[in-house]
Amino acid sequence: MPHLIDDAEALLRERGFKITPQRTLLLQVLAGQPIYLDADEIYELAHAQDASISLATVYRTLGLYAELGLVDHRYVEPEHRREVFRLSEGPEQHYLTCVRCGTRVLIRTDLLNQMANELVRRKGVSVSSACACFTGYCAACTEALRREGKLPG
What we know:
Elements: H1 2-14, H2 21-31, E1 37-38, H3 39-49, H4 55-67, E2 71-75, E3 83-87, E4 94-98, E5 104-107, H5 109-123, E6 133-136, H6 139-147
Parallel strand pairs: 4-6
Antiparallel strand pairs: 1-3, 2-3, 4-5
Helix pairs in contact: 1-2, 2-3, 3-4
């Protein structure tokens, strides 16, 4: 992942932005994670390495990185209250967010790709990107709710 950090820093310089220790740290945190993380999760990881970093810095930097295309971001709730980020490299990922415990469950992209392919076939369109928000219950919460008689079973 060092090349990702070098490439990102080169783009920042090219666009006239300074390479600050905080920006480099956030790139390192993102490069070390294969999954999408929300700003609070990124903050916790960065703060563990540098206690001077603030949540506001994390939000500002993620906004800059998104604007420059350095990070991919997704909403994991239909109301778009929770946004997650990762460096713009690697296979696409989508999640189901558990409305009971907040756990994010990775959804296989082949299912979404089939849906996109079917949309192309049926409607004659081309799909360049997609964002899917799934909410429901993770396996553990589904089982607990069934035991409690709150879900059919």
